[in-house]
Fold this sequence. Notes:
The structure holds 2 protein chains of 2 kinds. In chain A, 30% of the residues lie in helices and 14% in strands. Chain A is α+β, with helices and mostly antiparallel strands. In chain B, helix 10 runs antiparallel to helix 11 (240-253) and helix 11 runs antiparallel to helix 12 (264-282). The longest helix of chain B is centred in the last third of the chain and has 19 residues, at 264-282. The complex binds flavin-adenine dinucleotide and FE2/S2 (inorganic) cluster (2 copies). One FE2/S2 (inorganic) cluster is lined by residues 96-101, 133-136 of chain A.
Amino acid sequence: MPLSFEVNGKQVTVEVEPRMTLVDCLRHKLRLTGTHVGCEHGVCGACTILLDGEAVRACLILAVQAEGCKIVTIEGLSNDEALTPLQASFRRHHAVQCGFCTPGMITTAHALLSEEPDCDADRVREVLSGNICRCTGYISIVEAVLDARSAYRPPESQP
Amino acid sequence: MKLPAFDYACPATLAEALALLASRDDAKALAGGQSLVPMMAFRIASPSLLVDLRRLSDLRKIAIDTSGVRLGAMVRWRDIEDDARLNGAHPLLKAAVSHVAHYQIRNRGTVGGSIAHADPAAEMPGIAVTCDADIAVTGTRGARVICADDFFIAPLMTALAADEIITEIRLPAWPPRRRWGFREFSRRRGDFALAAAAVFFDVDDAGKAYNAHIGAIGVGDRPARLPAAEAEVNGQVVDIAISERAGRAASASVDPQSDIHASGAYRKSLIGTMVERALQSAAGMSAL
Ligand SMILES: Cc1cc2nc3c(=O)[nH]c(=O)nc-3n(C[C@H](O)[C@H](O)[C@H](O)COP(=O)(O)OP(=O)(O)OC[C@H]3O[C@@H](n4cnc5c(N)ncnc54)[C@H](O)[C@@H]3O)c2cc1C
Ligand code: FES
Ligand code: FES
């Protein structure tokens, strides 16, 4: 089936079978391999992307279900010039080790902070509870997300 | 694993969706896909046609009036979390839904999908049974309403016919002074319950409880009310002793299976503790 949607600001049209999941479409058809695939059944969170602004698991969505939607992947949350405040915070807090979970952590944290820039540590932990990391032990990730909050607040409310 | 092959349709109207579902024996509705897609990845389900309900915007409404709360089948966990009206209109629903799955799954998963999926450890079927909800369904042969207690049969088995679609879940009106509590134990927040209790009761002028509803989740083939535990509460002023008696009655009423997550004996004990704590929270006795 022909399929059109917007990815990281660009309109794309691809041909997919209905059985193709959105994450496979992004990785194999569009070569956006920043989004990782861990479990392929919704338990690890590695494949998290933003669909119309909301964090979702791309392994549990059929590509055809994204017709007409706006998708942002980890590639769309970075730029070539410099680290974004969220990326810089992950680096500062050593919240990345092997990096396998990192795209899912960043996309999830970005969705959370965009909506709730004042969230507390409990909320961050609850939201990240759906993302598995086998390396860091999570503490550094939670700290990195908390530390990046200020970058998501409107400028006038910053001290 | 990759999904088995299937055809896909995304109809614009309920009538078209029903006709598509009826067109093949093994066609299935697709709502959030948060249960169906994993089932297909495991090859537990391999429907030959998926009928995506996402364009049926009439099924996305949350209606609240004097008759109660009506949740369209395509209402997502996220929509319930975001709807401030429900804090007063159905606090028990709101509390239970806060335990459903994780952030990303809550942006997709729907109440209709959860009811149709009928996982015995899922919160929404438990709330439907505890609150005497009605499930409105429709098929090419017409519409009908099934009470939640008749709807759930066994794990992943319901009274829904293969060519029917759930349109709405109707929860009876919630009186403002009703007492309620919800307690769940899972290994990690967002995981399925090892055991959970949903309780409510009303209180007369003498402070005695009546109309007690105590529902158990995760400790049987399907969610169920526990009449023996309810009998301990009705006519009593709910205090520590009553909640403990109800908890023991709850444990005695269930016979859960063992699985890799917990033994049957552990779940049996756990449901007693959950009922006890939910009742204490309902009576305003604990912050736990
Ligand atoms: C990692 C993980 C953890 C989870 N944890 C929990 C949890 O703690 N508690 C919990 O309750 N759930 C949990 N879920 C399941 C989640 O809540 C699902 O969203 C929900 O059970 C099914 O809703 P859905 O909209 O995704 O349905 P789908 O997956 O689209 O469909 C499920 C079934 O319902 C049928 N169906 C869907 N809509 C209708 C309709 N309107 N009429 C008729 N049939 C219909 C489909 O044909 C299918 O058989 C979890 C899921 C995952 C992946
Ligand atoms: S790959 Fe999607 S949640 Fe694991
Ligand atoms: S950094 Fe290795 S899995 Fe998280």
